């Protein structure tokens, strides 16, 4: 599937099923050339939200001018509250070929993966209800290509060059293994599956994530003391 963006409209798709816990994966080839102002997104989010208490897990690829790297912007929303951004450069050119991106969301943690390398883990530390974790709202998978030149590239200072439109991003090989939600309940076919039963990253996966974060992470909200006026969010630095 190819998604296109011009100065009249973006485009997107959504999964047919809703899930409470799932592993979703897709191969993406991003917009080539001058992609400044564009955002290619792969995320799971609540399908219908009453008020502002939605859950969402984001992987957003922020375009840039030719020759500059893409920024992978990740965020996790719980009960309508985000502010959990981590940003990364990629260790390859994501525009010349397809690469694999996945989101694993289970009762213990959320893991974001790029080409089989974990880049981020958000653990469920909500035993005392003071670190929110998405657990009870069904979500769908979404893919989209849209214009965000008010913030996406260098804080909005670089605008979309519409003379380069239409911009195109390609998606293929979508898979989902999850607890499908319907009629007010979710059904998990196999709770022993590795994606569902894993508790936290360890071993070689942990080493790979540490390598990515050491060499390619460019922003981590848990390091931004000034942003939070000296009091970091409760999950930062905590271990279960």
TrEMBL record:
EC number(s) stated in the UniProt entry for this protein: 2.4.1.207
**What are the GO MF terms of this UniProt record?**
hydrolase activity, hydrolyzing O-glycosyl compounds; xyloglucan:xyloglucosyl transferase activity
Q: What is its main location?
A: secreted
Question: Where is the GH16 domain positioned along the sequence?
Answer: 1-171
**Gene3D superfamilies recorded for this chain?**
2.60.120.200
Q: Where in the cell is it found?
A: Secreted, Cell wall; Secreted, Extracellular space, Apoplast
Record-level GO cellular component terms: apoplast
Active site (catalytic residues): 56, 60
Database matches in PROSITE patterns: GH16_2 (PS51762)
Q: Which InterPro entries match?
A: Beta-glucanase-like, Beta-glucanase/XTH, Beta_glucanase, ConA-like_dom_sf, XET_C, XTH
Free-text description of this protein's post-translational modifications in UniProt: Contains at least one intrachain disulfide bond essential for its enzymatic activity.
Q: What enzyme class is recorded for this protein? A: transferase
- Alphabetically ordered keywords of this record: Apoplast, Cell wall, Cell wall biogenesis/degradation, Disulfide bond, Glycosidase, Hydrolase, Secreted, Signal, Transferase
Of which family is this protein a member? Belongs to the glycosyl hydrolase 16 family.
What is its biological role? Catalyzes xyloglucan endohydrolysis (XEH) and/or endotransglycosylation (XET). Cleaves and religates xyloglucan polymers, an essential constituent of the primary cell wall, and thereby participates in cell wall construction of growing tissues.
Q: What is this protein called?
A: Xyloglucan endotransglucosylase/hydrolase
Q: Which organism is it from?
A: Linum tenue
